[in-house]
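Quick one: structure tokens for this chain, please?
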Amino acid sequence: MTRALNKLSAQRLKSAGPGKLSDGGGLWFAKSKDGNAKWFLRVVVHRRRREMGLGAYPAVSLKEARLEAEKWRAVVREGKDPIKLRDKLARDAERNMHLLHDIALDAFESRKAELKGDGTAGRWFSPLEIHVLPKLGKVPVSEIDQRDIRDTLAPIWHEKAETARKAMNRLAICMRHAAALGLEVDLQATEKAKALLGKQRHQTQNTPALHWQDVPTFYQSLTEGTVTELALRLLILTAVRSYPLRFLQLDQIEGDIWTIPAEAMKGRKDATSDFRVPLSTEALAVIEQAKPFARDGFLFPGVKRGVISDATMSRYMDRRGMAERPHGFRSSFRDWTAEATQTPYEVAETCLGHVAGNKVERAYRRTDFLEQRRVLMERWSTFCSERAGDVVLRGLFNG
């Protein structure tokens, strides 16, 4: 049976009193006594009468209501429940409206356990926070494409290449995280953005390092006994990275061994054990000098709270007119072992906390060369701290 359609007119709606008016085909106009009006559609699905609202009048016009009604009648003709389908579409739309800012925070939270100090240093999140989220943070992650990413990172793609690379990497992780949550995202968007941005012109440069022969002069100039100078002295003597040194806790030291927790050791992803650092006589003396400054168990506290920052040591070297950076002392030490000693490769690399050798070699190796490293670090400390002119010669291994 064919039902008449389009029985109402715009003029009829304006003059309508309280009650219900049929436009045909199940489309109804209803007006209450308080003057509010709305549209609804009556359909029969699976022998059940269903009634679904189509919006308020006049926000939804007569023309719009008819179009909406026909859309849902077509759904009924396919044997589907229009109300259930609309609810599903609404849930999908809401799910895909997650903003990048929220996704980024959730991705960061889920990865904290993998990061040093649960990511408190901020280095994982900061490339996103500084260079991506100000522009894309309020954009639904499902709407982000390669052009958005290109336009966001283009200003730093060549000028701050390493920072841009990290930001792109973090953004790719966020996109994968969104996909894992069930959101509709373009997992290839970051790769496409790289293609649009082109190859980076900037070449990553190594951290400036003091020549190993000049290290004793600098070390012996650190005579003020401040927290910054003491931290630099111990950094030089142990050849560790600044992070574990800055977060050194007194209970990590037992006798002449400093045990760094495995999670604080960068570049040792396949390591499951802590890293032992043999402390030379000079290093132990520096630790004793630093103990009066200790706060909350940390040997090198910050001025107001927390621990000394990496930037504090860098600024100190800046004030001394030096281009070199604290991290560069690791290179100084490594060059010294190569040029002034006959230290085996595996021992020298282990001193730096590097995992030397291939997977098979590491599987059979059961030593961390502690005793050999103890001798080597004592020689290095002597080289750095003694003023005698023949220190270089005495620093040579004789086999």
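The longest strand covers residues 48-57.
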